[in-house]
Design brief:
Aspartate Aminotransferase, domain 1, alpha/beta, 3-stranded antiparallel sheet, 36% helix, Aspartate Aminotransferase, domain 2, globular, 379 residues, 7-stranded mixed sheet, 2 domains
Length: 379
């Protein structure tokens, strides 16, 4: 491991936290029962593990355990939150949706699907600092607006979106408020505890848990749940909204990750800020220009461009030093200009030179002097 580059791509996926790994393997090896088996102790213990994990995830958002549905990840949660409202929307005649131009493809593509089927979608562009303007979201509201979907933290820039202000703008409107919190859940705690947020998508592998597990929080408004219809059929699990045998080990691991996020938040953030300070000093010393306002970003992410240098060339030069990216992992196999940075109206050269660095509390010391030596010959 010491001969490998330092991993600075935690917004793509995070390493497993050691305490999460311990829980994961305990439920894979020892407590391997099916939570749906009601006739013996193995099933009962598995069911108890699932319920405990619901409580752990619910504690982060200050919601009830029955409001937590387990899914395969934030992509599935986003699809269920958006497409699951289609039947209700068509019956109610409310087929207008507001979102932003900087959402992850896991939100934009379901919206495109609905748009091809008669829905009207308004995408609010961000400001040059990377954040959307709450007033512009509020101005887009109509009587027939069904849903407002705004991400918590942008996966490319790390910019934190003004959820509380958007929630306030929705105080007297019936529209459902969905937040894709893949990058922010457990990292920005208070934001997601706002009771006006109806639906929250969670990803385990962005929170030091395994890939293949996530959650959708479906917060009740009074006594009414969001009127979601299932996308899959074949069992009664997860209130009938996500049928299939529950992956107990993955669920327990996500629960532990959520618990640790609350317990260790301050300590983790201190480490993130230390690395961000070093990263900014290094890249700005090389003439780097941050994309978006670093002060509005989660302190575990830096998106920065080096004038005159193409991001692909920089990544090649750094391949033995740092593992970084120049955009979202979901589109990196076929690189195109970032739709996020394009929506921010940044100069083309700045977009082409954009690098994304993202780290976590498990990140080792970064050899910043080696980074400078690798980039200097390119200038």
């Amino acid at each position: 491991m010491s001969e490998r580059p330092v991993y600075l791509d935690c917004n793509a996926t995070t390493p497993l936290d050691p305490e999460v790994e311990e829980i994961l393997f305990h439920y894979l090896r020892e407590e391997f029962g099916n939570a749906g088996s009601r006739t013996h102790e193995f099933g009962n213990r598995a069911k108890q593990a699932v319920q405990k994990a619901r409580d752990q995830v619910a504690a982060v958002a200050k919601c009830q355990r029955e409001e937590v549905l387990f899914t395969s990840g934030a992509t599935e949660s986003n699809n269920l939150a958006i497409l699951g409202l289609r039947e209700f929307a068509e019956k109610a005649g409310r087929k207008h949706i507001i979102s932003t131009a900087i959402e992850h493809k896991a939100v934009l593509e379901p919206l495109e699907y609905l748009a091809r089927r008669g829905f009207e979608v308004t995408l609010v562009k961000p400001e040059p600092d990377g954040a959307v303007c709450p007033a512009k979201c509020a101005a887009a509201l109509r009587a027939d607006t069904l849903l407002v979907s705004v991400m918590h933290v942008n996966n490319e820039t790390g910019i934190i979106q003004p959820l509380s202000d958007i929630a306030a703008a929705l105080a007297n409107h019936e529209a459902f408020f969905h937040v894709d919190a893949a990058q922010g859940f457990g990292k920005r705690i208070a934001d997601l505890q706002n009771p006006r947020i109806d639906l929250i998508s969670v990803s385990g592998h962005k929170l030091y848990a395994p890939k293949g597990i996530g959650a959708l929080i479906t917060r009740r408004r009074g006594y009414s749940r969001p009127p979601l219809a299932p996308l899959l059929f074949g069992g009664g699990q997860e209130r009938g909204l996500r049928p299939g045998t529950q992956p107990v080990a993955l669920i327990a691991a996500l629960g532990k990750a959520a618990e640790l996020a609350l317990r260790d938040h301050a300590k983790r953030e201190a480490r993130w800020r230390q690395i961000r300070k070093e990263a900014l000093e290094t890249f700005q010393g090389l003439g780097g220009i941050p994309n978006g306002d670093p002060e509005k970003a989660l302190p575990n992410t830096l998106n920065i461009a080096l004038p005159g240098l193409d991001s692909e060339a920089v990544m090649v030069a750094l391949k033995d030093v740092l593992a970084i990216s120049n955009g979202s992992a979901c589109t990196s196999q076929n690189y195109t200009a970032s739709h996020v940075l394009t929506a921010m109206d940044l100069p083309e050269e700045q977009i082409k030179g954009a690098l994304r660095l993202s780290w976590c509390h498990l990140t080792p010391e970064v050899p910043w002097s080696a980074v400078m030596r690798a980039i200097d010959p390119l200038k």
